[in-house]
Amino acid sequence: MNMGRRKLRENVFRLIFCCDFFTEEELAEQVDTYMEEEKLGGDDEDVSYIKNRVYEIMVVKRNDIDKIIEKNAEGWSFERIGTAEKAILRQAVYELLYDETVPGKVAINEAVELSHSYCDDKGPAFINGVLSGVLKSEGIEL
Fold this sequence. Notes:
The chain is mainly alpha-helical. Helix 1 crosses helix 3, helix 4 packs across helix 7 and helix 6 packs antiparallel against helix 7.
């Protein structure tokens, strides 16, 4: 991969964020539009990774991931969670539960780092708290 894990993760996050604003049927077209606008068509491996990851998170595993987030966002209904926070949490929960190539500590650290850039001042603590709950409720060892 030429883009690097952090940049790949940020592009996946940005697409997941956008997914809350269009329907599942529009997903492929919106992903292609994003790739064109961001000029991300150069490396087939990177493009494939981004498209597959977004599809896995937002179509295949979305309901399961959202239930886990809601269960661990103590005192928050899922609808009340901000769009950026949801996108970050969806990606991190996916990595924690379904991607054995990403160590748990890395998934959490990267999620908190994204929240510093895309959420308000309370975002990082919220993200960290929800993900700590996920670790406990899902029996994930770091």
